[in-house]
Amino acid sequence: MKISDVCKATGLTKKAIYYYINAQLLNPERDKHNSYHHFSEEDLHRLRIIAVMRNFGMSCEQMKLAFRYPNMVNFFMHQHMETLRQQLASNLENVRSISSLLLSMPPQYNIDSLDEFLDRQYQLTDQERSALDFLCPSQDARMVSIFIWCTFLDVEESEYRHFLWRKMTELTQKELSGSLRYVAKVIYSTDPKYIRSNSLNRYQDSMLVIKMNNASKENVKQRLINDLITLSNDETLQIYWNLNYEKVMFPIFNLKNGPLNELMIQYNENYKLYLNHLNICVNEVAWELLHGSLNDLYQSLKQVLHDQFDIENYPGIIGYNSFEKALYTQLPIPVMKKILASE
């Protein structure tokens, strides 16, 4: 296919197409005799996707990441939209600041006096931010839901599952203004490469638990115990645990053990099997920690985690430590502290 035909099919100019070729977003074949590009149907399809992302204002680097990790398009779109929402709020504040300046500026105003407005930048009111959220609502609840439940979303689409998914994101949205807001910030700040590998690891772990039988149960229990031993000996993991316990780990734990549990069981029947199998292992390990041979390990964990290891009331945190914690220990500790200290 000639470039002129590609321009018609995509709405892109020749200059733009050559720009994306030079940026290595696609690599069409060249004619050996005249060096002209020949575009395949695959090239055309890729350019149509590029045109969509360009219309959304995404950079070439963002596009490259999206093509490198194609199954993470949800993450990149959510991340970009959040950036646009922040820019929109900043632009609105600038408009209001300039408007206020113009209203107070006499016609003979000189630029030399402009410095008096240095500390008079307009800040959006809560009412204005609410109006902005109404016009451009955040999709953080959807993104957080995808990452929390990613292991169990690979099921056939249906109208009922769409209904369940809406209910799940609605419930998550109610928590985002409170306890879950830090979870969204951590996810946005984490390297997408690691998020992808973490999702794959969690999927493999979940399949291991779902397929658990009497022979493999001891392997799952030993995994839980070994990870607790590692936590008791690793000072860095202890710092992450103590940092995340209140603002990251517990909100996720409470969310997954609330009304969303039943919705996910309906969404994917394998989730019930996963819960049943994991709870068997977790409860047996918890008993050993509280009353049996692992009590010394339990006392050690209570000490190094500053009593933020309440398995009497929340034994499920044993499973969280093995199967979910890793995603929230990737950011450098100073970065994590800064995120958790923000409002």
Automatic annotation (TrEMBL):
It comes from the Bacteria. GO terms for molecular function: DNA binding; DNA-binding transcription factor activity. SUPFAM superfamilies: Putative DNA-binding domain. PROSITE patterns: HTH_MERR_2. PANTHER family: MERR-FAMILY TRANSCRIPTIONAL REGULATOR, REDOX-CYCLING DRUG-SENSING TRANSCRIPTIONAL ACTIVATOR SOXR. This is DNA-binding transcriptional MerR regulator. Keywords: DNA-binding, Repressor, Transcription, Transcription regulation. Transmembrane segments: none annotated. InterPro entries: DNA-bd_dom_put_sf, MerR-type_HTH_dom, MerR_fam. Residues 1-69 form the HTH merR-type domain.
